[in-house]
Write a structure and sequence with these properties.
The chain has three helices and four strands; from the N terminus they run αββααββ. The chain is an alpha+beta fold and about 120 residues long. The chain has one domain.
Length: about 120
């Protein structure tokens, strides 16, 4: 009788522990923009503002910011996919002598990897 009670207690405990350990990942996006005729001057937007950075890991943030020093479109694509970002699509616009290409990437993060804020 005691062993059945112990087994039942263990199963019930396990059912309560299971959902609390399963962390749901959150999908975040970033956008790389190229704003020139030669498409060699990228900027990155991953939701940052002066007072807010959405990612806690400063080393990862530093890696993202390295995109702005890259020479071309393909180098940026290879670099970001190497960091685990997934290509979602792109938009290209042309105004007189200037072309702008915006490339959207996504990546899933655990809530603990993100800062709280805007």
């Amino acid at each position: 009788m005691k062993s059945k009670t112990l087994v039942l207690f263990a199963l019930i405990s396990f059912l309560f522990i299971l959902p609390s350990n399963a962390q749901v990942k959150i999908k975040k996006f970033c956008m790389v923009s190229f704003r020139s005729q030669s498409l060699n001057s990228p900027t990155i937007d991953y939701g940052q503002t002066r007072k807010y950075r959405p990612l806690k890991d400063s080393a990862f943030v530093h890696k993202l910011e390295q995109v702005e020093y890259m020479a071309n479109f393909i180098q940026v694509m290879n670099y970001l996919t190497g960091l685990g970002w997934n290509y979602e699509g792109n938009i290209s616009t042309t105004e007189s002598d200037r072309t702008e290409v915006k490339i959207l990437f996504s990546r899933e993060f655990y809530p603990a990897e993100l800062t709280k804020g805007k």
